[in-house]
From TrEMBL:
Assigned keywords, A-Z: DNA-binding, Sigma factor, Transcription, Transcription regulation
A biological-process GO annotation: DNA-templated transcription initiation
Protein name in UniProt: Sigma-70 family RNA polymerase sigma factor
The keyword Transcription is annotated on this UniProt entry: yes
Domain called RNA polymerase sigma-70 region: residue spans: 30-96, 133-181
Gene Ontology molecular-function annotations: DNA binding; sigma factor activity
Entry-linked InterPro entries: RNA_pol_sigma-70-like (IPR039425), RNA_pol_sigma-70_dom (IPR014284), RNA_pol_sigma70_r2 (IPR007627), RNA_pol_sigma70_r4 (IPR007630), RNA_pol_sigma_r2 (IPR013325), RNA_pol_sigma_r3/r4-like (IPR013324), WH-like_DNA-bd_sf (IPR036388)
Highest taxon of the lineage: Bacteria
Gene3D superfamilies in the cross-refs: 1.10.1740.10, Winged helix-like DNA-binding domain superfamily/Winged helix DNA-binding domain
Keyword Transcription regulation: yes
Similarity comment: Belongs to the sigma-70 factor family. ECF subfamily.
Amino acid sequence: MQDTNQKPPVHLDALIAAFQKKDIAAFEHLYQMYAESMCGAIHYIVKNEKDAQDICQEVFMKIWDNAETYDHSKGRFFTWILSIARNAAIDRIRSKAYKNRKQTISSHTLHNYADHRAYQVESKLDTQGMESLMKSLSEKCRQTIILFYLKGYTQKEVSEELRIPLGTVKTRNRSALLKLRRAVEGRVLTINNLTVD
């Protein structure tokens, strides 16, 4: 027997268009689709649960405030959000690094130990969404994404680190992002509680 109350899946383009018009329901739907992956990516960089959650909330507030700046002709929505998340996480690390320089060596060591222990305990729980997406990539593409998006390397630095041509880095990056986008967009089909007018 078919459930007549079940709403049909929402097409991503229509959802993004509604979000850009400041539709709260569309924003909530996009949050439901992308938050787990973005928080996982942020946590991978900052290695601290509280910071990752804080940054993730800031990222979604930023995309809400800047919804009109997303331009589909310049890239996919997933890539746009991932770029904002990555930059926010790297900014936080740089900020913490600056503050940590002012601390004594012993307190810096204690801070790193506490972060490391928290990361060991929480990492499996906090990065499951991102890990499941990353597992869909080949090892070569995964290396490129980790270095570029999660560790903050430039494409040139990735090329030097992996000892591969810059063009290969760019190709792997595009290929990996396409696969990740498809995996995330596949979630649209499983979240059927929103209609877009």
